[in-house]
Design goal:
CBS-domain; 13 helices; flat
Length: 348
């Protein structure tokens, strides 16, 4: 009898081969997150704080009685523009134009893995991609939406049972992780990576070492570091280096919307009582934690509570995409203009 853990790991790789339009965001959410191109910047930032579920707002313009998407506003780039102190008048000033966005046609046969591979490209990451029919935007797919859907399906298959081992414990029914492979055509899926330590993969997508801030540092200090290293969150530590909070893109947007002075110390501005996992946590445990606590980033802490790394949804989905695309030998949608192979993206 096949073990449910083996079923789940195989199914995760299988699910990554389905057409990504399965995960197309409902039209209602696209409507909820759209803003007119002339909306004042202050109102845009307030809406990004309240309705930007995936860190993005869609900018639309009405021409000749027809509304069309002309760009998008991302939390990450908005933080960068805030850091540069640029005076924005409206949504059009804040947005990234449609011509610069990552998008694909509704008729394109792209798999979940292919789209995740593009989203998690360490040279040009994005949290969502837009789906087009001609020049009309018909929706978007997001990293968060795909991640949640895959997790729900995986959880159903596993029937809420844990298959991640800790402290050298055996897998259920004595399964050898090295044997968890799925045969598809001439390729083998390597599924056991979910059970590997998350810390082994953190540096593939971020800075060479963990970046932290102190409680007496300010919001402005956080903004400058986030822009310098192109990261979405920074752990905040106390005088002993113990994790005390976290500051992230949504926090910056929230404080900007509230009019908080950026000279405010992180002891007042950071999110406190932050969730974390052990630095020995597996990728699956990180995946479980970010979904359960509805966050994108999860600090990895040592036995004394000091952050040593950070992992999150993007790490897990990037590795899933890498496994599947490598197995299929896919050069990654050259027709969309992303001509780097997986090896080039990941440095080998």
């Amino acid at each position: 009898m096949t073990n449910p853990a083996e079923n789940g790991l195989q199914a995760l790789a299988d699910m990554a081969t389905v057409n990504v339009l399965t995960f197309l965001s409902p039209n209602q959410r696209f409507i909820k997150t759209k803003v007119p191109v002339n909306m004042p910047a202050k109102e845009v930032i307030a809406k990004l704080d309240s309705d930007g579920e995936c860190g993005v707002l869609n900018v639309v313009e009405e021409r000749r009685g027809t509304e069309r998407a002309v760009g998008a506003i991302f939390a990450r780039t908005t933080v960068g523009r805030i850091a540069r102190g640029i005076d924005h008048l409206n949504a059009g000033d804040l947005m990234t134009p449609m011509g610069q966005l990552k998008k694909f046609g509704a008729s394109d046969e792209l798999s979940v893995a292919q789209v995740l591979h593009i989203m998690t490209d360490k040279y040009s990451p994005t949290r969502s991609m837009f789906v087009m029919e001609g020049r009309q935007c018909v929706g978007q797919v997001s990293m968060k939406g795909i991640g949640r859907a895959l997790y729900r399906a995986l959880d159903e298959i596993l029937d809420n049972s844990s298959f991640a081992y800790q402290d050298g414990a055996e897998w259920p029914d004595g399964i050898d992780p090295d044997q968890l492979k799925k045969k598809r055509g001439d390729h083998l899926w390597e599924s056991s990576w979910l059970n590997e330590p998350a810390k082994n993969y953190c540096r593939a997508l971020g800075p060479e070492s963990i970046i932290t801030l102190r409680l007496n540092d300010t919001i402005q200090d956080a903004v400058e570091l986030m822009v310098e290293y192109d990261i979405g969150s920074i752990p905040v530590v106390d005088a002993d280096g113990v994790l005390s909070g976290i500051i992230s893109d949504p926090d910056i947007i929230r404080h900007k919307a509230k009019g908080t002075e950026f000279s405010t110390p992180l002891s007042e501005a950071a999110t406190r009582n932050v969730k974390s996992v052990s630095d020995a946590a597996t990728l699956y445990e990180v995946y479980n934690a970010v979904i359960e606590h509805n966050c994108r980033h999860m600090p990895l802490v040592d036995k004394d509570g000091r952050p040593v790394d950070s992992s999150g949804l993007r790490d897990v989905l990037a590795l899933l995409a890498r496994q599947v695309v490598h197995a299929e030998g896919d050069p990654v949608t050259e027709s969309l203009g992303w001509e780097r192979t997986t090896a080039e993206m990941w440095g080998g």
